[in-house]
Amino acid sequence: MSSTFDVVVIGGGPVGENVADFATRSGLSTVIVEGELLGGECSYWACVPSKTLLRTGNAVAAVRRLPGTTVDFDPAAVLARRDYFTGNWNDEGQLGWARSAGIAVLRGHGRLAGEKTVVVDDAPAGPETLTARRAVVVCTGSVPIRPPVPGLDSVRTWSSRDATAAKEIPARLGVLGGGVVGTEIAQAFQRLGSQVTLVQRGPRLLPAAEPFAGERVVAALRSEGVDVRLSRPLDSVSPAGDAITMHVEGDSIIVDELLLATGRRPNSGSVGVETVGLEPGKPLAVDDTGLVEGVDGEWLYAAGDVTGRVLLTHQGKYQGRIVGGVIAARSIGEELDTRPWGEHVTTADHVAVPQVVFTDPEVAFVGRTESQARAAGLDIRVVDIPIAVSGAALHADGYDGEARLVVDETRRVVIGATFVGQDVAELIHSATIAIVGEVPMDRLWHAVPSFPTISEVWLRLLEAYRTPS
User: Fold this and answer.
1) Would the pLDDT of 387 be above 90?
2) Same structural domain for residues 9 and 132?
3) Which residue numbers delimit the Pyridine nucleotide-disulphide oxidoreductase dimerisation domain (predicted)?
4) What is the pTM of this model?
């Protein structure tokens, strides 16, 4: 392998893969340095396996909402299907893609060692030093936050990786944290046969979403037998033989495994950023082209979770595509298009970040919540309706969902949308397009939803908006 490339990418998750792909498409020689599996967290321990664990239970629940149906499932088959979609934690398929795309891959932990220099101490053939002609891009993702709970170091704990890669379903599972990971794993494992206890320090689940979203998910989890405890800190933990005791405000709850789902932080602690004047462990602050701030020379870029901007795979991949294009443009002296929504800026990071929580009901949201819009001083109107349309009624007996639009009244455009209900995930892209396109409300009136679909909720939202408040 050559030691000199146009672009050196540290981190081979989906973000790093996108950077490398878009740089290579433009004729730049590119290498990815990855110490684990090519494809990263999302492919093997996060998005893909977690959604696979959820999907069967969600599908069975959906069937049971139709009359005259009886259906069950085998948890072992769910785990086997999860293994298939993770390639049994083998990345040969991803390596084949990289080779076919003309991207070199070097196994090992990459770290910066000065300007345009990356050292890989544990490379297969011994320590290697890589030099970048054009750019180094840090795409090292994020790592779990371990909370300061007394006794935590005395017991066995699960990270999200342990949960999504579990070979057996524990009889009793404790979950600390009520964000996306906590709620999804809680429901998946309850349906797979665990008795789940979820402890959340704050007053609601999914605090990043509209309050009604968390309320509906709490109701669903409790209806299925999950013991959800809100506004309850985990005071301490202690061993209980082979099990674990969670001490929660005077109660002692014994579980077989304890999942820590208390958030993630940018993974910049061992990337060598101190060699270029940055502080390890801190997010790599970037401008909207992905250029790392505080480093001279327009050669160091970052994308994805390590920037601390948006900790979502799809948004990181979007940043990666932009960064790959920016490096290619600068390599040939092309002027960058940095206007809002231009070719070389990550404008969507600020106004249109979509997210789906794959619980049942699903939660899908994009843009600003009501509280965020009001905190920004915007003149808004909030439209709330139940998802009570013909398509939903046909979709499931007793369909119960809720939708919200947040409208900027000054510009008369949608700036936020939330949908909660069975199978609403596919609704969110239309809202994302409306926000990115800044489509006027009067023009949206002419976007006619097909009958009978759950998308009819858009018509009802627009009708409600046109009704004087």
Assistant:
1) yes
2) yes
3) 353-458
4) 0.96
